[in-house]
Write a structure and sequence with these properties.
By secondary structure, this protein is an alpha+beta fold. The protein has helices spanning 2-27, 226-260, and strands at residues 37-43, 46-50, 66-69, 72-79, 86-88, 95-98, 102-106, 112-115, 121-122, 128-129, 136-137, 146-151, 156-161, 168-172, 175-177, 185-188, 191-193, 202-204, 213-216, 218-220. The strands form eight sheets. Strands 7, 8, 11, 15 and 18 form a five-stranded antiparallel β-sheet that branches. A three-stranded antiparallel β-sheet has the order 12-13-14, with no helix packed on it. The two termini are 16 Å apart.
Length: 261
């Protein structure tokens, strides 16, 4: 009887975490380059009362055993790196990656981090930076007298200076990929850090090594599907509800046992 209480409680805790993950997905449905997460669960240890394949008291082989599961736990919360919708913005500094690559960004402490959010800006010195002011790597500075910037599929950046009809190359963006992007560590602000699980980054020019190409004037939206999350939320709510009913039923059975005394 006590087992049922703890087993159902583990189910409620799991569904509570599942709901947290779904809520975060829905909260970021309009976040540029956001990748949704999914909670994975696994069953806990089993109490084995009789092993399958053992010998019964009459000498026959036991075809099935008796094992009582002790609940569930969260095994992982995995990021799903399916592509998001590509949205046309017309802004010359909005960039979308059509492929598996990541933009490289430098933090103030010199550390390199990675992002799919290509809503770049120009700071006071002309550098291409993220919305938080972190410069992209390799660093690219747009001249003050540039009237237009063209960023090609291969990451080549050209500036059209005032009074000139021809563009001048001022740099080239590079992208990075990982053998296991699900192993990247999220630090917020649309940024991801390399970890031993993600593997070391492979960097290169867009269009090579499966890095993907760059589209200027577009942004990659979140890959969250509101409909899928709503269905998952309803299923999680029902699972939470049925686990709470299991606790209530186990409690009522305990009360019945107490009343016998």
């Amino acid at each position: 009887m006590i087992k049922a209480l703890s087993i159902a409680a583990s189910g409620m805790e799991a569904q509570q975490l599942n709901m947290d993950v779904i809520a975060n997905n829905l909260a970021n449905v309009n976040t540029t380059g956001f990748k949704k997460s999914r909670a994975d669960f696994q069953d806990l240890l089993y109490q084995t009362i009789r092993n399958a394949g053992g010998t019964s008291s009459t000498g026959t082989e036991v075809p099935t055993g008796i094992q009582i599961g002790l609940g569930t736990r969260t095994a992982a919360v995995q990021k799903i790196f399916t592509p998001g919708d590509i949205i046309q913005t017309g802004n010359e500094l909005d960039l979308a990656i059509e492929g598996d690559g990541f933009f490289q960004v430098q933090l103030p402490n010199g550390e390199t981090v990675y992002t799919r959010a290509g809503a770049l800006k120009k700071d006071s010195t002309g550098r291409l930076v993220t919305s938080d002011g972190y410069p992209v790597i390799p660093e690219i500075t747009i001249p003050e007298n540039a009237t237009r910037v063209a960023i090609h599929e291969d990451g080549t950046v050209e500036a059209f200076l005032d009074g000139s009809s021809a563009g001048s190359q001022i740099g080239q963006l590079e992208l990075a990929t990982f053998s296991n992007p699900a192993g990247l560590f999220s630090i917020g602000r649309n940024l991801l850090k390399e970890t031993p699980a993600s593997g070391a980054p492979t960097t290169g020019i867009p269009g090579e090594l499966g890095l993907g190409t760059i589209s200027q004037g577009y942004l990659e939206g979140s890959n969250v599907s509101v409909m899928e999350e709503m269905v998952a939320m309803i299923a999680g709510q029902r699972a939470y509800e049925i686990n709470s009913k299991a606790i209530k039923t186990a409690d009522e059975m305990l009360q019945m046992t107490n009343n016998l005394a």
